[in-house]
């Protein structure tokens, strides 16, 4: 690997770490970069997932203040992310990538749509809950909790398999089904996505270590470590409407890029 190639992969890691922390879909920077330099898709995907763990850690740390009081929520959802990440990583190693990647653009589009209309759906749902009887509210809350758990798990499976824009999809689900502030949800998203990347990386290391290019993973890790810090400083200062607009724009770009590289 030449110096120029190493520098570009490091730079892609910085950008990916920043984007992942602000919104998600940083993989759509690093993955095409690795394909451009001729690395095999599975090796590129695996090495990229391993490298981006570092950025997730710094990004999550940067959002620690927004996560105050949400420890119980994270403890409920983290096991779903852990289990889903393992399932997704195993699917990547066992299944034909084309079979799953065919629906990825549709999933990202769904996430973007949910981010865009999430506040209206949440307000509508809250109004309905306010008119319901206490017993009905409890039943509705239980159903909503079950739906959230399933969606967190399903997003984690996707994240363990490919990971591109898992943050966009997760933010779409959370903004629709919860009433937390957008910045708090972004902090939750960073923690859950980091869990997915971490358990996927451990799974890759245990099951198929030969698919990890440690030079690539190291460059992306160093870049994303810095990018996570940058992303936290930028993302925490964005007003909710601006952050929502950034999510929609990046999600749309992610769809275009995935279709372009498919």
Radius of gyration: 18 Å
Beta-strand residue percentage:
under 5%
Order of helices and strands: HHHHHHHHHHHH
How many domains in all?
Answer: 1
Largest sheet: none
Helix content: over 70%
Report the strand count. 0
Mean pLDDT: 81
Distance between the termini: 26 Å
What does it look like?
The protein has one domain. It is globular, with a radius of gyration of 18 Å. The chain is built from 12 helices and no strands. It is 83% helix and 0% strand. α7 runs antiparallel to α12.
List the helices and strands and how they pair.
Elements: H1 3-22, H2 27-36, H3 41-51, H4 53-62, H5 71-94, H6 97-101, H7 104-131, H8 134-161, H9 166-177, H10 182-207, H11 214-235, H12 240-261
Helix pairs in contact: 1-2, 1-4, 1-11, 2-3, 3-10, 3-11, 4-10, 4-11, 5-8, 5-10, 7-9, 7-12, 8-9, 8-10, 9-10
What attributes characterize this protein structure?
262 residues; mainly alpha; single chain
In short:
With 262 residues, this protein is mainly alpha-helical.
